[in-house]
Amino acid sequence: MKALEVKDLCKSYGDFSLKNIDFDIETGTVMGLIGSNGAGKTTLIKCILDMVDYTGDIRILGSEINEEVKDKLGILIEDAFISNFINIKETDKIFKNIYSKWDSEYFKELVKRFELPLNKMNSKFSKGMRMKYKIAVALSSRPDFLILDEPTSGLDPVVRDDILDVFLEFMEEENHSILISSHITDDLEKIADYITYIDNGELIFSKEKYDLMENYGIIKCSREELLNIPKDYIVKYRESKYSIEALTNKKIEIKKSYPDIVVDNAHIDEIMVLYKKGEEL
Q1: Pairing relation of β-strands 145-149 and 234-239?
Q2: Residue 200: pLDDT above 70?
Q3: How far apart are CA 188 and CA 33, in angstroms?
Q4: Distance, CA of 62 to chain centre
Q5: Which of 151, 174, 185, 215 could cross-link to 269 by cystine, CB 3.0-4.6 Å?
């Protein structure tokens, strides 16, 4: 059973639309969802959670979304279903009546770990504290599948690292899965198994992170050198006044065939930029 299956998903908002999105998430894996602002990541997540109308087919944990499936989900989105006017103690009382597997002891453990105040209304929390609070709620329902929209946004590097460790602990259970949307691609390089990239409502790719890290690279060369490389080795390229940067998905082959050409490892953010701003050869 797959954690998530999305087939032929379409959704229109005025002049923006998601167009025929297809991807899936294997149970026991972490999928990183990337794209620039306005690319459609949050809209995609809202479709998955049945918060907006759409066309296409979405299955979560083998089923269309229903109350039984929702009970197995941990959700963090900007429009989270949490009142702004409750404190930590009240949160525990409320959510133990919502989720069948709500774990009060684990919630208290996370609250302590994240250094959250017990009696302050969450509307008074800082942005970072509020994010940690939402993460604690999402995890304390003891879900099988976490769906997270920008969970480390606004957090300092130390806190981000602590939260990523919590997600990795969650993934120690082989039936657990995560869909995590993030602009912080360094975080995804640390925890993701797969990367799905959408731009302007279109699916650009959905690939294993290992494939991206192992086979993609950034070529730095002259135009003459670029034109000597087979076109099917070049995904996109950008030309500046003094040099050319090209994205390849044949890093190993180019290093063997063109030993004098510089080919650097490609990070996820560099791959995004060249896909977005580069030209086809």
Answers
A1: unpaired
A2: yes
A3: 9
A4: 21
A5: 185
User: By the 8 A CB rule, do 192 and 160 touch?
Assistant: no
Please report which residue ranges of 152-228 form alpha helices under DSSP H.
Answer: 157-170, 185-191, 209-215, 223-227
Determine whether domain 2-212 maps to CATH 3.30.70.260: no
Q: Quote the pLDDT of residue 79.
A: 63
Confidence check: pLDDT of 271 > 80 = yes
Cβ atoms 145, 99 nearer than 8 A: no
* Tokens coding 26: 């294997």
Listed by start position, the domains of the chain span 2-212, 216-277
Q: How many degrees, rounded to 5, is the angle at CA 43 between CA 41 and CA 46?
A: 115
Strand segments (E) across 14-128: 16-26, 30-34, 55-60, 73-76
The pLDDT score that the predictor gives to residue 205 is: 95
Report the number of secondary-structure helices (H) and strands (E) in the chain.
11, 13
pTM of the model: 0.92
